[in-house]
């Protein structure tokens, strides 16, 4: 079924209040009147609606823009898409929040458990727990006192944890040496647990008889015991995960730390084992179309296949594309045990030595995997684009396909470069790349934000020993698949909008006003002009990155822009995708590993109970809740994967303590600066206590740490040389010292205020 063309009329704007209600004096309203007008509107409001309501002319344009900007910076209004605003809802002074992840500095991020306001729930940046208290972990709920610090942003302090202690303790067991002269209480101590969470500073005592036979330097899971007096809290070891020296224990540590479900219920496994192939009835036969899958060399589940051919029609010449996706909805039915378990997991989690899948292997690597030469059910989208990569029309359907080949990114790139022969039909690979170049042209004209953040790959041998840690190589073949998938995702969102069906969008809000303003100030100081808050587009930042690539500070510019970005998430409330510069976007292409994609598949199939794999009305009514749930699971997976890589890197660098490395400042905090190494991409802290003697002041707005007396400055992106002082594999923590600190001025005379 065809989707809406770019030239088709847009849906009518949201309903606004009666324009006769505000005063119509033909002049600019005051701040309170303008705020009240936006508050009373039932939808998002832009400058056009405000100008019409208050009879404003072109001469008021600049003043209105400045007033909207001030209201956004004060938190009275919240940006809601390009050039549109909505009123921000106030949170109570104290409320129950749930921890969803951590910020770049490692501090917890939370969301309110109950949120009835318009738009996405606000983000709450929690203060670290008091010394001696366990750190807040994802999924934990606390009563927090809130203080608004900007639109949709709050600071929170824990008033009361809804559980007296965390349900589990994961860390490294260290045996206590026997000492006949020790105090009685110390003599009853068999060992201690060093928490794996680097934010948890306090160790746990393991009483005698509660070790479960754990060996020294073994990763363990423990449960808290009742306190008996003051001091460190006791815990009983309930599971042994393996020695810290075993690289395969590292992923188990992350799985248990973040409570990632890794065992399927028996009923879910039985449902998966009963799965069988689909019939051709009611499906379009695509088995003669040479669709191919392109994935990493170590991939085992293939859920997307692509095809392209030249095309000409009334609109001109271009390409006909087909993107076929595994029909997971056929096997994972609403209300089944498989469905509830997939929703609980939210997504697959990928570690260097294992995958924790969203679906059992019988499906993820079996009937839902588009294996070459085997018949598989699919949902497909046929898309026509012109020579400039603009989408002309699309059509969705359910099909029966047979993959012609399973290729890796390296193989596809080698074929494209002429370094390897292809068994595909003649010219097919060249056509795929020609179509991708057309899509690249459209992407460049749209102005997407492409932050080239290096990804590290941990290489392990068959015994689990680390053999290398290196940047992941990105070919044009990677970009080809990415652009094909983005196009299919856009078509899915537009199709659901056209059919007025519920959609779980993939949204990415613009930078918050205060972050955008700080970014604008920093980029301006570097000589890059950025539009004011409220008029910022991804293409503006893409232009800055392009110009920075030709200069001598591309890393600093990239880090500055990256720091300002908000997190992408899933929501039925569409505010567009800022980074991709798209007004409508939904994840459709990976239902094997993302529950959000499965929800989009069900919506495309239909609503109600016929067919039985369509989206139930009950799920459509709680899409916001499902969106929050899968967004939290995604953040949990990202955090677990990142921490695991950090632990592998720390283990890899343990033997290199004292070695010098080059890097750049990638984070600035009140307690020091984070440095990212050039060679491995590893990040570690240079504590402020190791910096030259001075009074150091942290400026959050400019991301700098400045010495008061010396005037020396450490700033984001600054190249530095550091020496590795400490590597702690259990937490993944690295500590550095600067080896090339700036010269220190003469010591202060007596009587001057000391540091």
TrEMBL record:
Keyword DNA damage: no
EC identifiers of the protein: 3.1.13.1
Main location: cytoplasm
GO function term, MF aspect, one: RNA binding
Subcellular location per the Swiss-Prot or TrEMBL entry: Cytoplasm
Biased composition regions of type Pro residues, renumbered to the chain: 8-22
Domain called S1 motif: residue spans: 658-739
Record field: catalytic activity: Exonucleolytic cleavage in the 3'- to 5'-direction to yield nucleoside 5'-phosphates
GO biological process: mRNA catabolic process
Renumbered residue ranges of the record's region Disordered: 1-33
Keywords: Cytoplasm, Exonuclease, Hydrolase, Nuclease, RNA-binding
Record GO cellular component, one term: cytosol
Matching Pfam families: CSD2, RNB, S1
Family annotation (InterPro entries): CSD2, NA-bd_OB-fold, RNase_II/R, RNase_II/R_CS, RNase_II/RNase_R, RNase_R, RNR_Ribonuclease, S1_domain
NCBIfam families, alphabetized: 3_prime_RNase, RNase_R
Role summary: 3'-5' exoribonuclease that releases 5'-nucleoside monophosphates and is involved in maturation of structured RNAs.
Family per similarity comment: Belongs to the RNR ribonuclease family. RNase R subfamily.
The protein's name in its UniProt record: Ribonuclease R
Organism: Gluconacetobacter tumulicola
Primary gene name: rnr
